[in-house]
Amino acid sequence: MPAWGWIVILIAILALAAGAWFVTRERRTMQLRDRFGPEYDRVSGDAPSRREAESELREREARRDELEVRPLDEASRTRYEVSWREVQKQFVDDPPVAVAAADTLLRSVMVDRGYPAEDDFDRRAADVSVDHPQVVENYREGRRLAQLSRSGDASTEDLRNAMNHYRALFDELVSEREDEVP
Fold first, then answer.
1. For residue 182, is pLDDT > 60?
2. Could you say which of 47, 129, 162, 174 would form a disulfide bridge with 145 (CB–CB 3.0 to 4.6 Å)?
């Protein structure tokens, strides 16, 4: 076969390989978008490149796969729901204390479910984002508003919003059943 024939074959092989690589990369991107939803967009917006954002999300998945996340048993679920109602009642008399209590309660639920007891908020949010990407932003916003409260810069409306944001993740974590855990 003449040299140009080998060159044509080589070009065809390279084109097929490039096409396969592109399709595989796009499929991985779509899988991450489907799994992480709005969290994919947030991480992509913060990262210097799509590649680095997707690497971060895959690292989160790998870390999550090492955890033994489980649903709450019925007694724990009931205990947490009662505790949440108490925190809500406390909001009427002392909103800043209630928001701090909600933050602590939410962290307890996460630990009981099997998420690490990290002191680093960003790590906790990243861990929970793998299973709860639709509400993790509520957790972040609730935390931001709680920090405003600690510095004395939060209005009662800010604190009410913090409680609502915390409630979104709390409800999801507490109500999840055995057959729903990823």
1. no
2. 162
139 within 8 A of 72, measured Cβ to Cβ: no
Between the CA of residue 118 and those of 111, 134, 169, what are the distances in Å?
9, 21, 17
18-70 pLDDT per residue, tens: 676 776 677 887 888 888 888 888 998 888 998 899 999 999 999 999 999 99
Q: 34-52 as b/e, with b when 16 or more CB fall inside 10 Å?
A: ebbbebbebbbeeeeeeee
Per-position DSSP letters for the chain, written without gaps between them:
--HHHHHHHHHHHHHHHHHHHHHHHHHHHHHHHHHHTHHHHHHHHHSSSHHHHHHHHHHHHHHHHTS---PPPHHHHHHHHHHHHHHHHHHHH-HHHHHHHHHHHHHHHHHHHT----S-HHHHHHHHHHH-TTTHHHHHHHHHHHHHHHTT---HHHHHHHHHHHHHHHHHHHH--GGG--
